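Hey L., structure's done. Input below.
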Amino acid sequence: MKFPNYLEKKSLLNGTNRNELISFLNKNTNKNLLNINFWNKKLIVDSYDKEKNNEFEKSFINLFMLTKNNKQKNLDLKKYFILNFNLFSEKNKKVILDNYN
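Output:
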């Protein structure tokens, strides 16, 4: 997944830039449903506002499911999940744990 040049160089520390990037990503969700790189970028952007939105958990779950064949990336996500277990909602904890093999 390649961002347009004007979005690629914007800082994620700025809330307006993040909102613009999230809007772009949300418009392209269906087109990139099975693209691991898309969900990885979406997870990174969503992680900046994880206190404010639930999109982070959705991005995490999608990336987690898509990386089942990529053992290293899946292991990294499992480690992140264990370390941040309390940040996930009960519903999403169950979904992740059901697929945690």
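The mean pLDDT is 84. The longest helix spans residues 15-27.

-- N.
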